[in-house]
Fold these 2 entries.
Entry 1:
Amino acid sequence: MAQPTNAALERELGQLQGEMLSVKDSLDRIEGMVKTGFDKMEQRLRALEDKENQRKGAFALAMLLCGAIGAVLTKLLAGFGG
């Protein structure tokens, strides 16, 4: 079996280098897509958290108002009960 020549080895190394650069480019594109996807998910999660905090605040305000209305009605109705 004959030994490969330097030119053949250099050609094969060049092909391998080209393939590796192609793989690296593909991985870079995939990494960018994943990062973009995570960024979008993070934005959506932040928006959901904001909406949940608004809902909690609205619920607390509603409970406070109901309590105040109940207290006022109790005072008013106590006067009629004699």
Note: The two ends are 117 Å apart (CA to CA).
Entry 2:
Amino acid sequence: MFLQVAGDGAFFGNVPWWVFPLAGIPLMLVMMVGMGLMMRMMMGMGGMMGMGSHGASHGPADAPRRPTPDQASEAEVASLRREVADLRRQGPLDIARERLARGEITKEEFDRIRGDLE
């Protein structure tokens, strides 16, 4: 449509329509390489934003790292290890009794488990 508006090729000369997409491919590649270089340069300057080992910092370098919410503290890990060790020492019926006492299972579920174990 644009070629027709331009007046039968008067604006573009006698260039066939398929030249324009072919010219666009190398230009797109040059643009993508340029963007990649720009991203690499910006990631290299990450220290200016407090992410690298050089540049401005937002706190002391030897500050302890805070655990993220998905990381457990040393005390939590030790507690879980003790609990797992206790569970391994107990039998399945003992575990079912504790779950019944805590209200995690009903009496009917406990009876079914006991029947399955016997």
Note: The first helix runs from residue 2 to 5.
